[in-house]
Design brief:
Helices cover 27% and strands 21% of the residues. By secondary structure, it is α+β, with helices and mostly antiparallel strands. Strand 2 and strand 3 form a beta hairpin. Helix 2 packs parallel to helix 3. The protein binds tetrahydrodeoxyuridine.
Amino acid sequence: MKQREILIRFKEFKPAELTAEDKSLVNIAIESALNAYAPYSHFRVGAAVLLSNDMVIKGNNQENAAYPSGLCAERVAMFYANANYPESSVKAIAVVVVDSDGNVIEQNISPCGSCRQALAESEMRFKKPIKILLASKDSVLIFNSVEDLLPLSFNQGDLDFSK
Ligand code: THU
């Protein structure tokens, strides 16, 4: 038996320390969170996806009276991006939650397992790492790849992702 470890590296920035591009992506995620449809949880999540064509796609959580029919902000944004710009890889995604007053909460929210899986698919499909920015009121955690959030992810080997 060998003891193995997985080391996850990420950086923590104060909002003022972000690059202009990262700050803008976080701000767009905040804008998007304000439009979330979350009458059941009142947990308003916003995501902003930066594509390789430099477009930014917004998404927010969309809840439903039949709870499992709703969808998280990250997948709303990612699926819209991949559905409409299938040639563009995803460079980065910012995720944030706003409270009932529309202010960013103090917690860095991390994508759920299903969203990590969907993000991992995009990394595999385009063979490009996706930078992940998890923003809270006073800090932004930055991961360089989905692999850091979902190590040892499931994949079916060397597939042709073009279809
Ligand atoms: N939610 C997201 O939008 N993203 C996540 O990564 C986790 C959870 C949403 C789903 C639901 O509308 C609400 O937050 C409470 O779980």
